[in-house]
Amino acid sequence: GAVVSQHPSWVICKSGTSVKIECRSLDFQATTMFWYRQFPKQSLMLMATSNEGSKATYEQGVEKDKFLINHASLTLSTLTVTSAHPEDSSFYICSAFRTGKETQYFGPGTRLLVL
Amino acid sequence: AQKITQTQPGMFVQEKEAVTLDCTYDTSDPSYGLFWYKQPSSGEMIFLIYQGSYDQQNATEGRYSLNFQKARKSANLVISASQLGDSAMYFCAMREEGTGNQFYFGTGTSLTVIP
Asked: Nearest 5°: CA angle at B42, between B75 and B109?
């Protein structure tokens, strides 16, 4: 199967700090990765599309300066929540698109709590 | 218009019975893929099954089958012989060939399996 890891799984931080979340595709290369945000009892909300070697494409309403995305290699994308505030508290989940399978495989998600 | 519509916010099924989760989609792209994901309370999104728009036969994966009715633009998930571990949120998703690797997700159906 296709395995995507995400680290950390839980993070609690103080308001104003920055948090970095890593997403790795462990057994396949992914030129495209996605970052989602999910509120309780709701569907996934796409934040941005991360393409290896190029700038991420952000969805409307998502602040690119607040949510920094880097896709430096074919197996790693990172999301940095800069100057986090309590309203940034959420479940963040990444996925990697596997060409050939034409399917997104998801990481286990990161629960962020900003105090 | 919504790309993916899931009209059942919540469903209950008796253990060992079969259950159908509804999904309708809207696209004018002749080439697309339909997906179902399971999200247990842990939060991870688990890929279940895929159906391509040109596939002649309905997709099956173990106890999961996809009832693909192209003319009606529906892609219902059928879970046979329900187990307690099937209790989770289920999301239907679509990828259109013309819009790259982005997926459109439905609002989800919460399935509860009753012992």
From this structure: 30
Task: Report cis status (omega within 30 of 0) of the bond before A8.
Answer: yes
The answer to whether the Cβ–Cβ distance between A108 and B102 falls below 8 Å is no
Per residue in A21-39, pLDDT (tens digit) is: 999 999 999 989 999 999 9
Using CA coordinates, name the residue in chain B closest to A43.
B107
Query: Which residue has tokens 């842990």?
Result: B42
pLDDT digits (tens, 9 = 90+) for B38-68: 999 999 999 999 999 999 999 999 999 999 9
> Do residue B47 and residue A93 have CB atoms under 8 angstroms apart?
no
Beta strands in A39-101 (DSSP E): 44-51, 57-58, 67-73, 76-81, 90-98
Task: Dump the DSSP string for B41-94.
Answer: TT---EEEEEEETT-SS--EETTEEEEEETTTTEEEEEE-S--GGG-EEEEEEE
Chain B from 38 to 57: CB within 8 A of any A CB = 42-47, 50, 52
